[in-house]
Design brief:
Elements: E1 5-10, H1 13-24, E2 27-32, E3 37-42, E4 45-53, E5 64-68, H2 72-81, E6 91-92, E7 97-103, E8 109-115
């Protein structure tokens, strides 16, 4: 497995990081207080996100962060209960995955997804 990170420049690294911690359960893996940088992720899973101070992207919604969850509908209900707004309820997609879309405080697209029971994978 590759472990790495994705760096995103945002106006409020701590505020955006707090959103991911509060709603998606990510944990702080590192920080540079002097730079205002936050690194979030999971100690045992995949890539981390690094939020760096910088100007807001003119098209932040073009950055799409995909999170595989066990049950999109349960996560959708939980997050709506926490005040997270979604573009629409979860939907089955033609590629046999179920998706729900929201945005983080910086405007990046955050996609929750899970495979439908009859989804086929190429290995």
């Amino acid at each position: 497995m590759f472990n790495g990170w994705i760096s995103l420049r945002v106006q409020d690294p701590k505020g955006v990081s707090d959103w991911y911690k509060e709603h998606l359960g990510m944990e702080v893996l590192g920080r540079r207080e002097d730079l205002g940088t936050q690194m979030l992720g999971s100690v045992d899973k995949g890539a981390a996100l690094i939020f760096l101070p910088g100007e807001k992207s003119p098209d932040p919604e073009r950055v799409q962060l995909h999170f595989h969850v066990d049950d999109v509908d349960a996560e959708y209900d939980r997050l709506k209960g926490e005040g997270v707004t979604f573009k629409a309820p979860p939907k089955d997609m033609p590629w046999r995955w179920r998706h729900a879309y929201t945005q983080d405080p910086a405007g990046h697209t955050v996609e929750l997804c899970s495979p439908l029971p009859d989804a086929h994978f190429v290995e």
